Amino acid sequence: GSYAPGGAFHELISEGSRPAFAAATGGLVNTRIFVLVSMLATAFLAHYNAPKYYKELEAPADGSSKLASFNLVCAGAFGLASLLCASIMAGGFLTFGGAAKGLILNSYATTDPLALLARLGICASIIFSYPLNFVGLRDGVLNMVGLSDQSGKTSVHVTSTLILLCVMNGLALKLKNLGLVVAVGGAALGTSLVYTFPALMFIQATRQLAKKGELSKSRKYEMYANMLLVVVGLSLGGLGITMSL
After folding, report:
1. Of 28, 3, 10, 38, which Cα lies nearest the Cα of 242?
2. CB of 236 closer than 8 Å to CB of 37
3. How does DSSP assign 69-122, residue by residue?
4. Which of 21, 91, 102, 199 is in the most buried spot, having the most CB atoms within 10 Å?
């Protein structure tokens, strides 16, 4: 209630940032839900690191498969990420409603001590997570332009790093509406990485098994399910981009 009328911080934020709540519109299903779905896809964009973690995970001493341990690690990590994202999203919306900013911390007063702690937390998160995301970007770009085999050279390493840093940080300084960036990026890239590309890889791997005559009936049905997942991913991406723009 500290940002509600009469609250300690209500008068310390601009009028356009003050909490605004209105009755739900749009019938049973509000089409803007696809904007939210696009944003949610960005919560798991770091899952491309999973194969690396599986490779580095120590195998059980009894010689059994390490898949069970890997599943436990993934369930805990993704479960915690889901709870954290959901609690932050709910807290921000229940405080500011329709006036919530794309970067929710911009909605809070600069004199709010708890918001200051959150901003420091975001700062630490960016400092330590940016390198992890950037390495994936740089490796991917070098692979796309056919220079992955030369990535170990100092000249290629330094040049690609400087160019990508200038491009990414330049865009970050120019684009101010973080909500739009997250929504469009999530719709175009997030849904592809979460739904479409993994399903396409599974389909291709299944076709390779079929050529070798090693395709089981259950695997075949799972391939059909992945084909449906591709359609779902493309549909969510298209609707997300349309609704976001």
Report:
1. 38
2. yes
3. HHHHHHHHHHHHHHHHHHHHHHHHHHHHBTT--SSGGGGS-TT-HHHHHHHHHH
4. 199
What does the alpha-carbon distance between residue 25 and residue 7 come to, in Å, rounded to a whole number? Answer: 28
Query: What are the tens digits of pLDDT across the range 4-62?
Result: 888 999 999 988 889 988 776 666 677 777 777 777 777 766 666 778 788 888 888 88
Q: How far apart are CA 21 and CA 95, in angstroms?
A: 10
By three-state DSSP, how is residue 20 classified?
strand
Q: Which two tokens stand for residue 136?
A: 């994936």
Alpha helix stretches (DSSP H) within the chain: 33-41, 50-56, 67-96, 113-144, 154-174, 178-185, 191, 197-211, 217-244
N residues, the chain = 245
Cα torsion 201, 207, 211, 217: sign: positive
With 70 as the cut, is the pLDDT of residue 138 above it? yes
Q: Is 29 exposed, middle or buried (0-12, 13-18, 19+ CB in 10 A)?
A: exposed
